[in-house]
Amino acid sequence: MKLNKGFTLIELLAVMLITSILISPYIYQKTVELKEERVRITLSELSDIATSAQNYAAEQSLKWPDEDNQCSSAISLMRNDGYLGSLSDTSIYDTSYSTSCSKSTGNRFYVEVVTQTAAQAEILASHLSSSEANGKSINFSVPLPSSIPALEHLLPRDGSRAMTGDLDLDENNIENVNQLSTETVLLNSVVSKGSPCSQNGLIARDSGGLVLSCSNGLWTGAEGSPEGMISYFNLPLCPDGWVETNGSNGTIDLRGEFIRVWDNGRGVDQDRERNTFQEYQIQSHSHRQSTELPDWDYGEGGNRPYTIGGRRTHGGFQRSIAQPTENTGGAETRPRNIAILACEKQP
Known about the structure:
- Helix content is 20%, strand content 16%.
- A hairpin with a 2-residue loop joins strand 10 (305-308) and strand 11 (311-314).
- The chain starts with 8 loop residues before the first helix and ends with a strand.
- By secondary structure, it is α+β, with helices and mostly antiparallel strands.
- The chain has 3 helices and 12 strands.
- The radius of gyration is 50 Å and the shape is elongated.
């Protein structure tokens, strides 16, 4: 009877050896990646703590967080005040971050963490300026914001780094700006046109959203169409800010009327006041219609008078007379015209 045989011990050892040879590069690569990830996370957390401390000092009269206690509880204080987010006190090496500050060494803020090996501390120190490795520990420090022009580490002046949030100036000014490039600007200051202002060049808006500027001590805006202006539109309705001149809303009724410019003392249309109505009229004139009359012969005793069209005449002496013509035309006198909508500008 034939029996099935399994792997021998030597065969199993050979398989294990080959497997270990094959996976060793993978394990090595993952180990390197894990170490690099730990370095990256630690560098980020050290930088976040130090940067948050500078932000805190910049807004708190250049005083470090928990400065009265040598900044020993700076992390928890900044986290509670919203400067640090949810960063944990514990590092990825399962050790705690510690903070301190000292005015005797240039008024600097210190962040320290203990790694697992001295080599790890050296690697971290090589990536951070103003840092020092001491055994497994690394100590990183930053100065007060006042010693860093324009907080260069937070907002580089060369434009190489974009902001990631809002810039709150707490009602302070931005000065010496050459040009602003932006899609939109929100003006929060609401003023009234014609009211006093403090400095020429200031910009604000009125309650309707129109932009106003400070000029000669008063808020002024684009003049546009003045109130009371009458204009014509090829539209069925007046645009916003305009009303139809139909006699309502303080307008005069221009519907169906021709416009005559106010004489204002010239003497062509005398004794007219502005905005007064004038009935239609035809200038005084006359028409003459001539009718030829035949010669009349009465024989003896001629030259008798007779009447034609209400006028007495004598045969043979008057050849034509004037008579009224028949009516012609329509209900009014007018030139060629086009009907269009008249509107008046409102306040």
